[in-house]
Amino acid sequence: MIDERLLRRDEVALVWGIDRSEVIKEIYSLKNGKLVLRPEFYHMSGWPDGEAEHYTPILLDCFDRGGWFLGLFDQGRLIGAVVVDSRRFGPREEWLQLTFLHLSHAYRRRGLGAHLFRLAVARARQVGAGALYVSATPSRNTVDFYMRLGCRLCEQPDEALYRREPDDIHLLHDLT
């Protein structure tokens, strides 16, 4: 039985226990405003070195300013999480960032990732956002996942988020 609930601040670091394992065979890059797919192989067996140390303070800052953190649990173990930041940005200050969405490897391809995304969209709508901004890992699986759910390329990526993740594919999901 999978349960979902909001995470407490002291549970934020549990996200690093999510099994991020994945075999990546193709990645996207952006060339002249278009997605270009190329072969590139990675065997991700976990989180990159230093990822937890670098991003935990960012997640805690997000939590402290009112970010929305929802976790999926299987028998008390966190197996997926989604985070929507409360900080507004974008051309009309109407975008919210999908700061985190990950699901453990064994739970993928069951619709749970799409469920987490739809919950994030509902949360963003609830607080009056005009769009959800996604900085997606450039793997084909990740970008295709978001595109299937209605995201599109962001024509003018946020400067700060682009500097933080220049290889990511920056997407928007319109909420209006």
Question: Would you give an account of this structure?
Answer:
The chain is α+β, with helices and mostly antiparallel strands and 176 residues long. The protein has 4 helices and 9 strands, in the order βββαβββαβαβαβ. The strands form 2 sheets. Strands 1-4-5-6-7-9-8 form a 7-stranded mixed sheet, with helices on both faces. The protein has a two-stranded antiparallel ribbon with strand order 2-3. A hairpin with a 2-residue loop joins strand 4 and strand 5. The N and C termini lie far apart (34 Å).
Layout of strands and helices, then pairs:
Layout: E1 2-6, E2 22-31, E3 34-44, H1 51-64, E4 68-74, E5 77-84, E6 95-103, H2 112-126, E7 131-136, H3 140-148, E8 152-153, H4 159-164, E9 169-174
Parallel strand pairs: 6-7
Antiparallel strand pairs: 1-4, 2-3, 4-5, 5-6, 7-9, 8-9
Which keywords apply here?
single chain, 176 residues, alpha+beta, two-stranded antiparallel sheet, 9 strands, 36% strand, globular
Tell how many strands the DSSP assignment holds. Answer: 9
Q: Rg to the nearest angstrom?
A: 16 Å
Class inferred from helices and paired strands: alpha+beta
Shape estimate: globular
What's the average pLDDT?
96
